Amino acid sequence: xxxxxxxxxxxxxxxHLPQEVMLQRPLQLADGKSEYDIIDYFKARSAECxxxxxxxxxxxVYSHYRPVVVDTIVSRAEFLTSYTPYQxxxxxxxxxxxxxxxSMVCQLTGxxxxxxxxxxxxxxxxxxxxxAVRITGRxxxxxxxxxxxxxxxxxxxxxxxxxxxxxxxGYDSGTGMLDLAALDAAIDDQTAAVxxxxxxxxxxxxxxxxxxxxxxxxxxxxxHVFTEAVSLGLLAPPKEADIVCGEMQSYAISxxxxxPFAGIIATxxxxxxxxxxxxxxxxxDANGKRAYCLTLSTREQHIRREKATSNxxxxxxxxxxxxxxxxxxxxxxxxxELAEQNLAKAHYLADGLPLKFSAPFFNEFVVKCGDxxxxxxxxxxxxxxxxxPLGSFYPELSDSMLxxxxxxxxxxxxxxVKKAVAR
Amino acid sequence: xxxxxxxYTKEHEWVDAKGDEATIGITSHAQEELGDIVYVDLPxxxxxxxxxxxxxxxxxxxxxxxxxxxxSGEVLAINETLSEAPESLNADPHGAAWLIKVKLSxxxxxxxxxxxxxxxxxxxx
Lengths: 423, 125
Description:
- The complex is a heterodimer of chains A (423) and B (125).
- Chain A has 423 residues and is α/β, with parallel strands linked by helices.
- Chain A has two domains: 54-66 and 331-422, Aspartate Aminotransferase, domain 1 (Alpha-Beta Complex); 68-325, Type I PLP-dependent aspartate aminotransferase-like (Major domain) (Aspartate Aminotransferase, domain 2).
- Chain A has helices spanning 2-5, 35-48, 68-74, 77-80, 92-109, 121-136, 149-160, 180-186, 208-217, 301-304, 317-350, 372-380, 411-422, and strands at residues 54-55, 113-114, 140-144, 166-169, 191-197, 221-226, 243-247, 263-267, 280-284, 290-294, 364-368, 384-385, 388-389, 400-404.
- In chain B, the strands form two sheets. In chain B, strands 1-2-3-9-8-5 form a six-stranded antiparallel beta sheet. A three-stranded antiparallel beta sheet of chain B has the order 4-6-7.
- In chain B, 34% of the residues are buried.
- The chains are: A alpha/beta (423), B alpha+beta (125).
- Chain A binds chain B through residues 137, 273, 298, 303-304, 307, and chain B through 39, 41, 44, 57, 59, 63-64, 66.
């Protein structure tokens, strides 16, 4: 093989790489360990890792229970080893799973059509913004400062080369909700999309209807973003929005140091031809039997080339399948009960603490605690991962942290956090 | 088949000019090549189209094709019936299934287009 590549040694394959990024010594690996020894070694190392910690960290990635059946199903080779269906109709099982995903996302969001999934919640935001630009023929975007800061960064990355100016609109320092008057002032006759998040980054529930009215009055579309999908079990679907996008990590997708996750994008039927990505439809085959197919592919890159609605030409099939299994397993009532547990635990945690904002919240809230880093350090010694110190994202909130409580939090740990924050 | 009073493009659009107003559509050859048409994407009235630039697209069960403006001008009207009945483009491409009407900004552009005989020769008929 080396001969075919025209090099004489394995090192020759890497000769073009800069010397300063190359490790200048051999890897320090012991020779000849048995499989048994290696497994022992890794077991010992993993015992040193942060296992058995309680987490109160949310901020876009949430600690929720993952039912064991999820991994049982996604580990099936038919799902695990297949890539996005290019010979789509060959893969009826995959298409059916995607169709179920799309249908359940529509039920959750109150939209008419959802695609086969996006890479994650953050990249779904610029896709929604570009969609609004195509629909309205306008080019500007207004995004609330209460949208996840990293989502806003991803939006700016896309916007930079799209010729899509992005303006940010602030929040009310008393309620932690969107400042609707400032939002109204930020929208002009070239604004294509107004992007808000609810529950927002502070966990606060926004007045989606009021934001939609302000956007629509000026001819802009409302893009609704969510990072905590569990909230959809309890909150009204954001039907007033024109496009809904968000993150499905809460639905049985492991935090995994930040990914891979799966995003969604959903919209009204009238905008179906501007939605990015793959769409699975249900139809009948030549014998009148139920069959699934990719549909409206003329929006996509392999047909429309540079005029495609997006350069996304795949989906997060396996990860979205985790969310699909999760939704099927919990069902409507189960999702509601799960959301209620989150709400109850977060409110038990918040009770009596110095909250920064007054508006209703779901399972996250901002609390004043003097030195957030010091609080977290104290908690860590008790095997508790505290909240997110907000100073790096919001300098005006450097004395505060964002705390999250999910169904996974035990009462004894919640009481420890209350003590640490109140101190 | 191809009306004598129309002018044609090599991209298979036709234009029927009366005074400084013109009606624009796609030719029978175009609809035949595309097959069953399922969707027509048209611009909004009031915008300006420019000769040679795309102003919309026609989607069939097998392809999407851009439509190029045969002449420049302001869009006066679009054929609203096509959103409900795109298949009429297969049935009557030179008549009821016109796409847009424009106010010509440069009527001299018409002279550079093909006449019916020229278009038929271009098609090799």
